[in-house]
Every structure is written in C-alpha cells, then in structure tokens.
Amino acid sequence: MDTEHADPGELALLRTAFGAAGPDGRRPALGWPGVHAFEARHGVVLPEPYRTCVAEIADGSPAGPPHYGLVPLGGTPAGWGGDRRARVLGEPFPLTGPWFWDAEEPVPSAALDARIERVFHHGTVVLGHDGCGMYWHLVVTGPHRGHIWLITGEGAGPFGAQFGFTTAESGFAGWVRHWSAGGSWFDTD
C-alpha cells in the first residue's frame, strides 16, 4: 500500500468501480484546487489513491461503497448525529489495533468517553456507512495513515487481511476492490 503515489492500476480500478457520473453513479470529481484547499484548511495531505480519486474520478458515489454510498470529501453520512463534535483531521488517529470498548468491563467515565470521541473524530475522513451505526473511515494522519477502519458504537477495527476479519487488501483501493467484487466485509469466518 503506497499512500504517497497513485498507482495507475489502482486508479483504473477506481474509475471502473465508480462508473459514470450521474444520479445513480458517481458525483463529479472535486478537482485538484478543491482537494488542495481542503488539505490546507485541515492541515493534512490525503493518502493516495483516495486523494487522486477525489480530485480526478469521483467526489462520492450514491451507489457505494459502502452500502449507503460514498460521501463527498469532508462530509458525513445521514444519521451521523447533530450532537457529534467537529472533526479534527490534523490530529493523529489514536489507534493502531482493534479496540472493542463495548466488550470491556463497563466503567463509564469522562476519560473513556473522550477517548472514544477521539476515535470517531481525530485523523480520519468519513467514507460512509453500512447502517446500524457502522461507519467507514479513512485514516489521514497517524501511524495507520491510508488504512480503512470500521468504527461503530461498540468499537473500532482496521480493514485488511493483515488485521484479520477479511481476506481483502488494505487501503482505499483494496476496500473498493473487495466491495466491487461483492465480497463480505468480514469474510474470514
């Protein structure tokens, strides 16, 4: 997974996966000036190939991935919740391995709530959701830059074969490839 340089093969996959622009297909690309303005505003450089995808191929897609569509850059999906804090993309994403806080002994505390909020709001762009509070994020800052994470009300885990849960490749292109092939997100059972 190369987060610094767009691979031509991955870009071809993304062009095919997102298909034609229109009401049922992809949203028009944002363009490089729009991507650069977003990055400057948030103090980040988006990882490849997502960066080139948003600039040249599609800035979201109602057809997905995920199930309820790929949201435009910097957007949040319907149902995200009005009480959620502002996103802080320049702060590193705080996790490097799965954390299922709901499986831990429940000890409600302000510190635990603050840590969970950082998982939801720091260092990622939200890609979309699969319903039931299952949100897909692309990490843009921190050690997991370029990886996709599923973050829910119960916990968070990275997407990719090296993390378990799936046989798919890591990163945005691997995530899209797996979805395009009709793969189950959790296909190691």
Word description of this protein:
The protein has 189 residues and is an alpha+beta fold. It has a single domain, classed as 3-Layer(aba) Sandwich (SMI1/KNR4-like). Helix content is 28%, strand content 10%. The chain has five helices and four strands. It has helices at 8-18, 32-42, 50-57, 110-121, 171-180, and strands at 124-129, 135-139, 148-151, 156-158. It has a four-stranded antiparallel β-sheet. Helix 1 (8-18) packs across helix 5 and helix 2 (32-42) crosses helix 3 (50-57). The protein is globular, with a radius of gyration of 16 Å. The two termini are 25 Å apart. The model has no long low-confidence stretch (mean pLDDT 89).
Brief digest:
The chain has 189 residues and is α+β, with helices and mostly antiparallel strands. Helices cover 28% and strands 10% of the residues.
Key phrases:
single chain; alpha+beta; SMI1/KNR4-like; 4-stranded antiparallel β-sheet; 4 strands; 28% helix
List strands and helices in order, with pairings.
Layout: H1 8-18, H2 32-42, H3 50-57, H4 110-121, E1 124-129, E2 135-139, E3 148-151, E4 156-158, H5 171-180
Topology order in helix (H) and strand (E) letters: HHHHEEEEH
Which class in CATH terms? Alpha Beta
SS-derived structural category? alpha+beta
Give the DSSP E fraction (strand runs of 2 or more residues).
5-15%
**Which shape, going by the Cα principal axes?**
globular
For the largest beta-sheet, the strand count, sense and barrel status come to: 4 strands, antiparallel
- For this structure, the CATH topology is SMI1/KNR4-like
Number of strands: 4
